[in-house]
From TrEMBL:
InterPro entries: TPR-like_helical_dom_sf. This is Kinesin light chain. It holds the Pfam family TPR_12. Gene3D superfamilies: Tetratricopeptide repeat domain. It comes from Fusarium tricinctum. It comes from the Eukaryota.
């Protein structure tokens, strides 16, 4: 799944990538908590999607 979402992101399919990254983030928050490294990495991936779309406010809020 990581390869798929990375491909979506790199090819500019931001909506598809965002929904997958968000689902991963939600799951990791539930399983590991919001301070765990794997959760923070998921947050960073979502921030990159926001950045690439110029959605700076959403990126900063996350």
């Amino acid at each position: 799944m990581a390869l798929l979402v990375t491909t979506y992101h790199r090819q500019g399919y931001y909506s598809k990538a965002e929904s997958i990254y968000q689902a991963v983030l939600d799951l990791r928050c539930k399983v590991f908590g919001d301070k765990h490294l794997v959760t923070i990495r998921a947050m960073a991936n979502l921030v990159l999607i926001f950045r690439d779309q110029g959605r700076w406010k959403e990126a900063e809020e996350l």
